[in-house]
User: What shape does this take?
Amino acid sequence: MLRVPATLLAVLTLTFLAAHLPPGDPLDVRGEVTPAEREALRRHYGLDRPLPAQFLVWLGRAFTLDFGTSLVDGRPVVRKIAERLPGTLLLMGTALALAGFLALPVGLRAARRAGGAVDRALGVSLLVLYALPTFWLGTLLLTFLGRGGGFLGWFPVLGPLEGERLLDRLHHLVLPALCLAAPLFAVLTRQVRAGALEALRAPFVAAARGRGAPAREVLRRHVRPHAAAPLVALLGLLVPRALGGSVVVETLFTLPGVGSLGFEAASRRDLPVVLGLTALTAVATLIGSALSDALLHRLDPRSARP
Amino acid sequence: MSAATPGLVGLHLLAGVAVLAPWIAGERPWWSAARPRQACERAWRALGVLERDLASGAPGSREAAERALERLAALLPPAARAEVEDARGRLAASAAPAGELASVRERFPPGSVELPVRRGSPLVAALHPVEAGLQVLWCAATALGLLRWLGAAVGLRAGALAVLGLALAAGGAQSVARGAPDRTLWREAARAAGPGERFLFPPVPFGPEETAPGEHARPPGGEHPLGTDAYGRDLLSRIAWGARTSLTVGFAAMALHVLVGGLVGGLAGTLRGAAGATLGALIDGMQCFPTLFLALALMAFVQPGTLVVIVVIGLTGWPATARLVRAEALRVGRSDFVQAARVLGAGPLRVAASHVAPQVAHQVLVAAAFGVGSAILYESTLGFLGLGVPPPEASLGDLLRGARERLASAWWLAVFPGLFLAALLLSCQQVAEALRARAGPRPGGGGA
Assistant: This one.
């Protein structure tokens, strides 16, 4: 299991390089400063040292989750991220759960009569759903379903406020979660359909049919578990996609979250926040895929074999 | 019919909008028969400036004055032209050249003579040769495709390559389309048209950056088929020209990530030992980054520009290609025919070039097809977040950003550019999936 630590090191190195190699001076964010002040700032942030030294220091701190302080408001990066995390977790969790729970029945339905009218119609709609740009879907939802859009106005447009009741919060979550879930749902449904088709052709299904098990029973007990297991692995792989989507969705719906934090930091050129966030999201992705792999191996021991 | 046909046709048509953008929407007429009043006035005013230069004896002003007189003469009716030509002839030897110019200026102030009508196509005259070539190619491909379709036999290979190449070229067209040579305000010329003057404008006679005063946020219909935005710019025109930006960035970024991804993936799949492992870790590490986060992080530290967007998307998108290529190279590297080649004494370079590479090529094609769609998507997403191609250049993402600020009052700003973008992405995706299906089913190809 050398793979995970090696990838982790690669992730951290890449994050550092991504922020330090491009031209441009992060201190430009401070506006008018005298050269002397600029030098002092450089020393304060350690920007005057050679790159490898900066990297080692940064790496050492990264392992203790110390990503320095924000250039914009001077607060610790970890704290800024931590306070935004619940919002993103809630949004992503809702979207992933929504996509996963819907994908299973829909994918099975498509596979039951593969090539039929329902299957083909679903195939086309899934392709469309997959290809729709998230930000456009969100804009449309806001225009036609959101309040202030001038049409139906069923859902609030701005993010939830402090101290609102649970029901209100859920009400606020409907549109963003739908928006984030759409492409994930398309990916997962296709996976379920492919898995179910594979199972339907497998000898164990033929054997079950041969025993005289009713079709419904075969689908429920033999096909469904086979189609559902890979979803677990896929959920892990979808984490980076969902995180990327959260940038758009949170910015669009003005939700406080990690994604909108990333966007704000990037537009204000807040180097430490961007660095910390990039490293943490990548590590989260890594952990997510390692966990889902481990879970899959438990659920389906065959997958552990190469 | 092949599986990829619907997507290819869609891509071809949408690329057509980009290639033919100046014919669909723009302020330059397809054809005009006009009296060149504006050019004449400019030439006349230039004489005034040169007169002062001549009087002060600025170096090279005599040659400049000769050229200016030549330009003016070309616009005038024959009798007047002869007079101006005479003045030009006297200029070289004249002791008081400024006086010669002044006499010409007094003799022919703007509007003093009826200018002869000039016929021609201002649009064609302004086209860059490369751009014009692409437009001809696109039309030829369309005709060919239609003929084939009528013959009920669409051969994918040649057609697919032609369309993909063409869409790529559509991107190239964008970069040369700027810097128009003549500065006539055609709409004004048409408004002041006298007898014998005719103008044939494109269906939408508005340029993408042209603001119509008093036409802010007009709903679709009338002069503006898809409405106007908050600044009074025609939406259809902006979509057609914005498609150029999106396709340029999409195809150029794809080329970059296929290049980098193919190289790194191929090396990671063929090299043994530490080098291969390091490259493998690099690919795995890159895969962990949510692409959009990485692109945001990079965009935060550079000055925005079209080229920068291409490089950033190319540099963040390559791991997907690299992973595909690496897996394929590893698989092929273990196969019997590669083992056999090794046993026969072929070196690693030869094995890679003549045995592994051809096997991996179709995976690269599949990756490229997916790459175009994702690059277009990322470009528009960055544009939507306000970190993409800088304004005023139209890009589909930037158009949708403008829409977001006017959700309540102007639904058309969100709907039409989005429809175009979605159709573009859908076509790319459909082609890519058809290509992947043809390349053979791969384990774990769930559509992600």
In short: The beta strands of chain B are 31-34, 118-120, 198-200. The longest strand of chain B covers residues 31-34. The first helix of chain B runs from residue 5 to 19. Chain B touches chain A through 52 residues (CB under 8 Å).
